[in-house]
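An example makes the point: we let one protein speak, the chain in one-letter code, the fold tokenised, and here it is:
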Amino acid sequence: MKIYHQITPEMIQQDLRYLELLSHNFPTIAAASREIINLEAILNLPKGTEHFLADLHGEYEAFQHVLRNASGAVKRKVNEIFGNTLREAEKKELCTLIYYPEQKLQLVKEKEPELEDWYVITLNQLVKVCQNVSSKYTRSKVRKALPEEFSYIIQELLHESSIDPNKQAYINVIISTIIDTQCADDFIVAMCNLIQRLTIDTLHILGDIFDRGPGPHIIMDTLCNYHNFDIQWGNHDILWMGAAAGNDCSIANLLRLAMRYGNLPVLEDGYGINLLPLATFAMEVYKDDPCDFFGPKVDKTAGTYNDKTIRLIAQMHKAISIIQFKLEAAIIRRRPEFDMDDRLLLHHIDFDRKVFVYEGKEYAMRECYFPTLDPADPYRLTEEEQEVVSKLHKSFTSSEKLRTHMKCLFRYGCMYNVCNSNLLFHASMPLNADGTFKEIDILGKKYKGKGLLNRVGQLVRTAYFGDKENPEKAFALDYIWYLWCGKDSPAFDKSKMATFERYFLTDKDTYKEVKGHYYTLRDREEICDMILDEFGVEGQHRHIINGHVPVKAVKGEKPIKANGKLMVIDGGFSKAYQPETGIAGYTLVYHSRGFQLVQHEPFTSTQKAIAEGLDIKSTTQIVEMSAKRMMVKDTDKGKELIIQIEDLKKLLVAYNLGVIKEKSL
């Protein structure tokens, strides 16, 4: 009992009710002792590998490949394990099999003349890789990750050594029997999936899953079934959350972006959104309008859409844009506290002279064909537009698939996260020019820093889940749109979203969106320290990790700022941004040795990755390495386990003092 001498009877009495509840899970001294031994052992394992990704923007093929290859970690492990014992081509084949087991197996079976020999060699190789990636976890954790049908067999292969002569025949028979019983394909798939799962312990998504790319719904399907992840909401995610909650401005903005990037299948096939009312309206109202500046940003050589469909998308694009400006005007007028009168722009159009007049200056317009605008009341929806809005509203709010994905976003997402001395948020922390936290008025009360993000998170949830009787519900529904494009939104933090100007004005100076002070001040180490202090982030090596603003690597911009205190990992997953960034995204990897930033080149296609073994070309940059390997005890999880151990020690003392009686099993 000497190791528990610091635990006094007074402490036991103080925690007696909790300890009695704990005793139901550990009813005997032996059970409590076993759990203490187990937890103490876990504390001394290496920390699991965390992966950080941001601004995926619907690029599901690149996203899924990065998960499958663990940002190059699988390839590195294969090289470490097999070194010069396998040729480069053989290692590439093995990696491709691990990434895409079902598809690669099909190709192998079509061309491999000695399939049984291939099975024997491959199964032994996969066992070695799996032993390597599982070595930093407890047997219990690995067992929970195993597919039920092969759990026992995989455990035997992982924990028995073929080097031991007493076990060699045993291992060989297991493998030969797997092949003889025609289970080899299923077993290989199970092993490859296990390797993928164990190589990434935790996945952090720093916002903007949606818009621009062709498969945000596929990314969400992947995440909803992923073993361990969290999401920090970006403004594009919040836009979709607002649409699902029934905010018509969010719906219109979302649709406009879908038309701009030609992503109709996401809406129609992915979420079952009925676009027919908008299409019918647009074809009729804009039948005489060439809509030259509203053509979708698609590769016309790819043959995805014919000319007729492209013309229809352009009409729908313009139609929903005008509807959007009218819907936004209603919120802006209803919520003067949003201070967005400068976004009321339709009444500045001089319809007779076809110019835009703003603050005493005239601007040339690209076009001035607005059949649904009444110059006397340009913000009023026509009856036909209102009907379209009503039908779209119903379609979004009744989509079962959208509801499922939104529940996932809410369950695993929030405005920010603090994890292992890292503060994660998507975009910005509103600041004043002098570097102090900017106070934001919400319903008559001032919020800043951590308090602001907490309040914003509450309002987002109220907008979606709040009861109609809740007095904040109506405000929250409007505010969720403000978070998408408002100048004091921590998910946006720019002077404006210059949608109207980019569509209709020729003067590119009007397109400028001035970023908030955070985006320049975050380069200073003392500013980052101030923010980290505000969120209670502790540790010798602590960081802020952001996305949102693409890092223009092609122009020499660096993702590491403020002497290593801040990392911006939006490297351009979205193909629309890749000409700007010159790369195709970053992955930040945090393993037991430290931080590595993986810079990716554009991904060709899943098909080429399988058929030709074309992996994403990635460059790894060491950001910060520790002199001492980081163990579980050094993590947030470790702190939780230490508290659990202390509680179990108190329970042992309570048993030994007779304060709590052991229970019969």
Remarks:
- DSSP finds 28 helices and 17 strands in the chain.
- The CA atoms of residues 62 and 240 lie 22 Å apart.
- The first strand starts at residue 50 and ends at 53.
- The chain has a mean pLDDT of 92.
